[in-house]
Amino acid sequence: MGCLLTLVLVGALVLTGAGFALHLLWVFAVVFFICWVAGYAFARGKARAERRRAQP
Q1: Cβ atoms within 10 A of the Cβ of 2, count?
Q2: Model pLDDT for residues 15-51, shown as the tens digit of each residue
Q3: CB-hemisphere CA count at 13 Å for 41?
Q4: N or C: which end of the chain has fewer CB within 10 A?
């Protein structure tokens, strides 16, 4: 009975750790996506400003 309890507790710890890791991965993915969209927007704005500056 003690061995079964130990296995259940270890399984709970593993699942808790996996859930925490997946949560952190989601947070990193959202931060990366926001930075990627911002970089894309700033790059387009810079290209448009350079094009406008080149016209007489």
Answers
A1: 6
A2: 999 999 999 999 999 999 999 999 888 877 666 666 6
A3: 6
A4: C
